[in-house]
Amino acid sequence: MHLTPRERERLLLHSGADLARRRLARGARLGAPEAIALVCDEICELAWDDRPYDEIVDRARRLVKPEQLIDGVPEAVPSLQVEALFPYGSVLVHVTAPFGTTRPDGPGAVRTDDGEIELAPGRERATAVLRNTGTLPIWVSSHVPLDKLNPALAVELAEPARFRLDLAAGTALRIEPDSARQVPVVRLGTE
């Protein structure tokens, strides 16, 4: 039997949903993978039946009760998306908080002390100039060594291979075309 990637994914969702239904039937709680599969399977079936989008999202949020989940699932899954096939075509269905509200101190929460936190303490810092010589904006993420950037981005700094942007992890900086920005940099921590 030959299946398209979409058909394989749909059958995989159904298998995960079937596992979730069997666990719920015997009173077991669900982990994130099977809970997600159950909700996505239901969304796909409701779409197949041409139910209104808003009704599908509402029913998806009510399908699994918090007491049916192991601890931490709502925090691990703040939203989900599935491409559902309606009679008129595919639609991306987005469900925020599919398993209810999350606890601010639940699993995955970020807890910090009061006050300032110094990033990369004790490392050498400098200032570099990044000049975008291209025609499109260029984003530079926080931990990329400055010698590995887009070739359209000229770096004015001695030893760019030894530095990165002095920004918090996961953040980025946008450099517009035909412009330059003075940016703080910090020595890489691998030396």
Can you describe what's shown?
With 191 residues, this protein is α+β, with helices and mostly antiparallel strands. It has four helices and eight strands; from the N terminus they run ααααββββββββ. β1 and β2 form a beta hairpin. It is elongated. It starts with a helix and ends with a strand.
Question: Tags for this entry?
Answer:
alpha+beta; 28% helix; 191 residues; four-stranded antiparallel β-sheet; Urease_gamma/gamma-beta_su; 4 helices; 8 strands
Topology:
Blueprint: H1 5-25, H2 32-48, H3 53-63, H4 73-76, E1 79-86, E2 89-96, E3 125-132, E4 138-141, E5 153-156, E6 163-165, E7 172-175, E8 179-187
Antiparallel strand pairs: 1-2, 3-5, 3-8, 4-7, 6-8
Helix pairs in contact: 1-2, 2-3
Which regions contain 5 or more consecutive residues with pLDDT less than 50?
none
Order of helices and strands: HHHHEEEEEEEE
The neighbouring-strand order within the major sheet is: 5-3-8-6
- The total of helices stands at 4
What gap, in angstroms, lies between the N and C termini?
54 Å
Structure classification: alpha+beta
Can you summarize the main beta sheet?
4 strands, antiparallel
How many beta-strand segments? 8
Tell me the strand percentage band. Answer: 25-35%
Radius of gyration: 24 Å
Helix content, binned percent: 25-40%
Please tell me the overall pLDDT.
Answer: 91
Q: How would the global form be characterised?
A: elongated
A few lines on this structure:
InterPro entries: Urease_beta-like, Urease_betasu_sf, Urease_gamma/gamma-beta_su, Urease_gamma_sf, Urease_subunit. It contains four helices and eight strands.
